[in-house]
Automatic annotation (TrEMBL):
Domain PBP: 31-245
InterPro entries for the chain: ABC-Tungstate_binding, PBP_domain
Name of this chain's protein: Tungstate transport system substrate-binding protein
Domain of life: Bacteria
Pfam families with a match to the protein in the record: PBP_like_2
Length: 269
């Protein structure tokens, strides 16, 4: 059963869909999904397509990657989509999860107020850009929520030689969409996955001010439960296989083209 926190964030009543054939209801696949994938809108495309193709309804709960791994490891989720490679590797090595299948990628970008573009102009890499932000007198909004983005922030601040608990860093403790809204209100910088920013930028008054470089690569993977943890291993593998199939890859690779003019995710090879 989902925890109270998960239930309150459950979205898309897809469990009400009827499985193909015979009119019997299949138990929904319980899928814990990192908030950036949810906030970009991608799951609204993938889940109905998976249900139509495999006859399996899905319940989705958007949480940070660390929480998604915890739900999977404790049998409260059947599968997870996360983007925290270090924690994924640790969970796999310890036997808390049973498998990891990379399915797509995008990149992190440094976002900030349009009028602050000059702060990071000329930075050679993200480390230099972050040092410039630290010396600018402006705020930086941190996710602060144990998401896949949060540990990447910490790694990048460490690489830049800037303490991650500096006074100019404001912790949101929320999802990517919430953090972007806070950055807009505070006229602050923020590290965002490219997909969520482009899908949500609207009237935020924020722009991508720095991008590029391997330090900003962002890989998403489907995680399977360990055999002894109570999750639905077959269902998790079916979902991973669907995302790796020509149909799934086509949906991932085309998502965003009609709405923002470019793909928001790229299927992995």
């Amino acid at each position: 059963m989902w925890t109270r926190r998960a239930v309150t964030r459950l979205v898309w009543p897809l469990g009400a869909l009827v499985a193909c054939g015979g009119g019997e209801r299949a138990r929904p696949l319980r899928l814990a999904v990192t908030t950036s994938v949810h906030d970009s809108g991608l799951m609204g495309v993938l889940v109905p397509a998976f249900t139509a193709a495999r006859g399996r309804p899905v319940e989705v709960v958007p949480v940070g990657s660390k929480r998604a791994i915890e739900l999977l490891a404790t049998g409260q989720a059947d599968a997870a989509i996360t983007h925290s490679p270090v924690e994924e590797a640790q969970a796999l090595a310890s036997g808390r999860i049973g498998g990891r299948t990379p399915v797509m990628r995008n990149a992190y970008v440094l976002v900030g107020p349009v009028e602050a573009a000059g702060v990071v102009a000329g930075a050679a890499d993200i480390r230099g850009a972050l040092r410039a932000v630290a010396g600018s007198g402006r705020r930086f909004v941190s996710r602060g929520d144990d998401s896949g983005t949060h540990p990447r922030e910490l790694q990048l601040w460490a690489a830049a030689g800037v303490p991650a608990e500096s006074a100019f860093i404001l912790h949101c403790n929320g999802g990517m969409a919430e953090a972007l809204e806070l950055a807009a209100r505070e006229h602050a910088f923020i590290l965002s996955d490219r997909a969520t920013f482009l899908a949500r930028r609207g009237d935020l008054g924020l722009a991508i001010l720095f991008q590029g470089g391997s330090d900003l690569d962002n890989i998403y993977a489907v995680l399977e439960p360990a055999p002894d943890r109570g999750g639905d291993l077959d269902g998790a593998r079916a979902f991973a296989e669907f995302l790796r199939s020509p149909t799934g890859r086509g949906l991932v690779g085309s998502f965003g083209v009609d709405t923002v003019g470019e793909p928001l995710f790229t299927p992995v090879e």
